[in-house]
UniProtKB/TrEMBL annotation:
SUPFAM superfamilies: Carbon-nitrogen hydrolase (SSF56317). Residues 3-240 form the CN hydrolase domain. Belongs to the carbon-nitrogen hydrolase superfamily. NIT1/NIT2 family. It comes from Aeribacillus alveayuensis. InterPro entries: C-N_Hydrolase (IPR003010), C-N_Hydrolase_sf (IPR036526). It comes from the Bacteria. The lineage of its organism: Bacteria, Bacillati, Bacillota, Bacilli, Bacillales. This is Amidohydrolase. It holds the Pfam family CN_hydrolase.
Length: 271
């Protein structure tokens, strides 16, 4: 299976959902006319930015509006959409939630960010997700993650041992840790022998600057395409059969010693 994937690397207007939606609508149209991708990605919290204190006012009630938008765009352009993430308001709290729409416009997957980033006060305003992020897209097993999730390799591996060949990452990753962004994503690709397609925003909000540098990385950890620090579409073709080839070349998954990993550790043991 070959896909052309495209990350819409864009600025986000702080706390301005309607403005951001109109801007994204234009960017989706332009991307489909010029790049014609099979899979389209957007950044994390692209409708609101990190205006966390106002999410009760500007968040999306049960994610209904966002789901309608993604369904409409996916059906109109016959494209699979990894919808970045949005602030989903519920009776149990506000979640940082990703939706996936297929070419027919059906919402086929929902994932709420599992790991909340305390340095940006997420734990004060957001509720943590509780479910995995494995899904099937055109018959291929994939997984989706949100920003801070990539610092937890055990969470990523949980999905790749169940067959995920492409990891879609959406983020508002700050400029101060750009080197970590690149290294962590390459590490996740290498250790899981899969594609990583990661969409980050550019611009700034009252508290942070964001560097862009969206990445498309192959199963050997090679950077296929990397964005700049400007608004652009970062695009490349990926061939998922390469995942099978790499996993046969270095059989990491069959060489795992899960029975040992799961044993309790005894720090008092003497040799």
């Amino acid at each position: 299976m070959k896909w052309r994937v495209a990350c819409i690397q864009t600025n986000i207007d702080f706390g301005e959902p309607e403005k951001n939606i109109k801007q994204m609508e234009w960017k989706v149209k332009e991307t489909m006319e010029t790049v014609q991708p099979d899979v389209l990605l957007m950044p994390e919290l692209w409708t609101t930015g990190y205006d966390l204190t106002r999410l009760h006012d500007i968040g999306d009630e049960n994610g209904k509006k966002s789901q309608t938008i993604f369904s409409t765009w996916a059906r109109q352009y016959q494209v699979n959409i990894i919808g970045g993430s949005i602030a989903k308001k519920t009776n149990h709290g506000i979640y940082n939630t990703m939706y996936v729409a297929d070419r027919s416009g059906s919402i086929i997957h929902e994932y709420s960010k599992l790991h909340l980033f305390q340095l940006m006060d997420e734990h004060l305003y957001l509720a943590a997700g509780e479910r995995d992020s494995l899904f099937s897209l055109e018959g291929e097993t994939c997984a989706g993650f949100i920003c801070y999730d990539i610092r937890f390799p055990e969470w990523i591996r949980k999905h790749t041992v169940h067959g995920a060949k492409a990891l879609f990452v959406v983020a508002e990753w700050p400029s101060s840790r750009l080197s970590h962004w690149r290294l962590l994503l390459q590490a996740r690709a290498i250790e899981n022998q899969c594609y990583v397609i990661a969409c980050n925003r550019i611009g700034s909000d009252p508290n942070n600057d964001f560097p862009g540098h969206s990445l498309i990385i192959d199963p050997w950890g090679n950077i296929v395409q990397e964005g700049s620090d400007q608004e652009e579409v970062v695009s490349a073709e990926i061939d998922l059969t390469k995942v099978d080839s790499v996993r046969k070349t270095i059989p990491v998954f069959s060489d795992r010693r899960v029975e040992i990993y799961e044993q309790d550790l005894d720090v008092r043991k003497k040799f």
